[in-house]
Write a structure and sequence with these properties.
By secondary structure, the chain is mainly α. It is about 60% helix and about 0% strand. The two termini are about 30 Å apart. About 15% of the residues are buried. One of its GO terms (cellular component) is cytoplasmic vesicle.
C-alpha cells in the first residue's frame, strides 16, 4: 500500500476530500480506496468508532470478527486496547483467543 494512501487513511480523509494524486494511486476507484481503508484498519487493529472504516463497513460486529480472524491467522497478540468490545460484545476473552490460536497450531 502506498504511504500517501496510508497517511490519508490514518487522518480519516473520506474519498471526496482526497487529493487527485492519491485518488490516482488507487486507480481513481472509490471501491479500491474502501478496500485499502478496511485492510489498513484491520491490520492495525483500529477501533470501529472514530475511524474511517465506519463509513465503509456498516456492521460493527462483522468488522471485529474479521479483525480477530486476521489477528489469529497472523499470530498477533490479543487486541487488549479493544477488550471492552471483544469481551462484552463478542464474548472473546484473551484466554479463549489464545486457546483458539493453539488449537490451530
Amino acid at each position: 500500500m502506498n504511504t500517501d494512501v496510508e497517511f490519508h487513511i490514518r487522518q480519516n480523509y473520506p474519498w471526496n476530500k482526497l487529493p487527485a494524486n492519491v485518488k490516482q494511486s488507487v486507480g481513481n476507484s472509490q471501491r479500491e480506496y474502501e478496500k485499502h481503508v478496511q485492510l489498513y484498519s484491520i491490520r492495525n487493529q483500529l477501533r470501529f468508532r472514530n475511524n474511517l472504516v465506519r463509513h465503509v463497513r456498516k456492521d460493527e460486529r462483522k468488522y471485529y470478527e474479521e479483525l480477530l480472524k486476521y489477528s489469529r491467522d497472523h499470530l498477533m497478540l490479543y487486541p487488549y486496547h479493544l477488550s471492552d468490545i471483544m469481551v462484552k460484545g463478542l464474548r472473546i476473552t484473551p484466554f479463549s483467543y489464545y486457546i483458539s490460536i493453539m488449537e490451530v497450531l
